[in-house]
Design a protein that fits this description.
Elements lengths: L32 E2 L4 E2 L7 E2 L5 E6 L1 E7 L5 E8 L4 E4 L5 E7 L1 E6 L2 E2 L6 E2 L3 E8 L3 E7 L2 E6 L4 E6 L12 E4 L8 E3 L5 E6 L4 E7 L5 E5 L6 E6 L3 E6 L2 E6 L2 E6 L10 E2 L6 E4 L14 E6 L5 E5 L4 E8 L5 E5 L3 E6 L4 E7 L17 E4 L2 E6 L4 E6 L4 E7 L7 E4 L2
Parallel strand pairs: 1-8
Antiparallel strand pairs: 2-6, 3-11, 4-5, 4-37, 5-6, 7-8, 8-9, 9-12, 10-11, 13-14, 14-15, 15-16, 17-18, 18-19, 19-20, 21-22, 22-23, 23-24, 25-26, 26-27, 27-28, 29-30, 30-31, 31-32, 33-34, 34-35, 35-36
Amino acid sequence: MMNNRTTRSLGAVVALGTSVALLAACSSSSDSADSATSESSAAAAPVSNSAATPRLTVSYDGGVLVLDAATLETVDDVTGIDGFTRLNPAGDGRHVFVSGSGAFTALDAGTWTSGSEHFTSTPALTDVKFDATTPGHVVRHDGKTVLFDDGTGKVEIFESAALLEGEKPETDTYTTPEAHHGVAVELSDGALLTTLGNEDERTGIVVLDADRKEIVRNEECPGVHGEAVAADETVVVGCQDGLLIYRDGAITKVQSPDAYGRIGNQAGDEDSPVLLGDYKVDPDAELERPTRVSLTDTVTGELTLVDLGTSYTFRSLGRGPAGEAIVLGTDGALHVIDVNSKSVTQTIPVVDAWEEPVEWQEPRPALFVHEGTAFVSDPAKNSIHAVDLSTGEVTQTGELAHTPNELTGVTG
């Protein structure tokens, strides 16, 4: 299972500028659901705004809610999406990929009216689809979006901004030697980092140059999972016994302090050398509820464990505007960690205490951070909260018509 994305937590988003403001931005899994042809429900009259209007998208069983991030009011309810799906920002600041059976499908969180300086809110599932046997991770970096099909190992790469044209972008493709639940990242020089594995095991990563010739590889990463980008275009993937760090043309292994110390979900900040990750130590657990997170300095390789005193899930990891690590605990609070001092500096109560469900596809509170605001969903009360990270106050609460599951957003 994977969160996502994310990538900068549960979803780093990329704001792309044009002559006018556009609204628009690993975790995916091989367990994606059927996605039927979707249609937007009867929407309210179009709303215009000359300023950027960030939006949130919330999946539920049967569709996706699109919310105004400022008011938490529902802008539209995109229905007809059957089964469990994943949500990931597409990278252009406006679209979100809905990953279901057979495709990555772009959901437009709002439509720009040509020739106008106003944004008209008409969210809808688009005809832009990237076929995939088992759609997996969606990665955004350096203006590129990279899709990974777990069922075939096919990697598709395109300019994120090209989605704004309203048509399916041209793509560069690469297929891994064997299909597996994996991930890929294209770097600014055209190099491609991909995971290595097959249906039985995942072992490490390989980096290919722009001509797809091998630069370097490392296969000392059992159970490789997830990715994140840190400062200086440092790419990190998790292992069952630590991390692999790709930096300046070389791969370094960071060993966990435990023989089995799995870091499978990460939240990076491209301005910070420190990576936030989860940390699990029981290889035999049906569901381990960890209370420690990992902080890894990608320059020195130092790995530090921070005990939160509460458990958390793969949808709990985020990064704040100053690079602080943010973790949503099952105690219902946000735990803010200074990545330099490696200590919790603030605890912000948001929702009631909860317990992680055994099935990873089941709803549980989720975290998405946009600039200085943390958004926290509350499936128990069909609601969502906005938290001002500078004050620690819950500034808005929105009521939802459906039980929320996945949560992400676009920048506008």
